[in-house]
């Protein structure tokens, strides 16, 4: 059995264009990357405002019977409540583009290359069945690794650029893990916005 690591740039000849790039589209789900979803100016302004204005929280989680610091800062909002600028505008733009009734946004702040998110799928009990997750990236480019859970193995390493939107269908949360690995090289801060349709009665999202 061979294991294949596609660099998205070799797998997708059109990656350097600005239109949507379909990275996967089969029974294991659909993954679409849109590099310049936001204008460079809106991406930069949004990054600066959110970095300054969001009440970023450090959290600890219980893992393997130990309390460990989550290696990034977090915030989350219900989209029908009070939101710091420019979240309402960004949420509307994502909703209009994707056509999904997003209810919540989870924000991640990766302060530098030591911050990360371990490979995971988003918690299914918090997602309305059939609805996608949309990730908007701001600030420094960080790679996301997206790998199938089972054979046949497929793994993508995708640089998530400022202003890009990554759309993952609901099925991808069943069949793939995604994560942002730590990097050794100096890298500036990055913010991601994860738009989700919360299942009725779901408690606070963790991923
Ligand atoms: O920062 C990202 O782009 C990914 C974040 C993520 O996977 C999550 O919040 O569940
Ligand atoms: Fe996630």
Brief descriptors of the model:
single chain, 207 residues, Jelly Rolls, eight-stranded antiparallel sheet, 13 strands, 17% helix, globular, binds fe (ii) ion, Alpha-ketoglutarate-dependent dioxygenase AlkB, dioxygenase, dioxygenase activity, ALKBH3
Commentary on this structure:
The chain is α+β, with helices and mostly antiparallel strands and 207 residues long. The chain has a single domain, classed as Alpha-ketoglutarate-dependent dioxygenase AlkB-like (Jelly Rolls). The protein has helices at 8-11, 40-53, 87-98, 170-175, and strands at 5-7, 21-26, 29-34, 57-63, 66-78, 104-110, 117-120, 133-139, 142-148, 155-160, 165-168, 176-180, 190-196. An eight-stranded antiparallel beta sheet has the order 2-3-11-8-13-6-5-4. The protein has a five-stranded mixed beta sheet with strand order 1-10-9-12-7. Strand 9 (142-148) and strand 10 (155-160) form a beta hairpin. The longest helix has 14 residues, at 40-53. It is globular. The chain binds 2-oxoglutaric acid and fe (ii) ion. 2-oxoglutaric acid binds next to strand 6, strand 12 and strand 13. 2-oxoglutaric acid (AKG) binds at residues 106, 108, 117, 122, 135, 144, 160, 178, 180, 192, 194, 207. It comes from Tahibacter harae. Residues 1-22 are annotated as: Disordered.
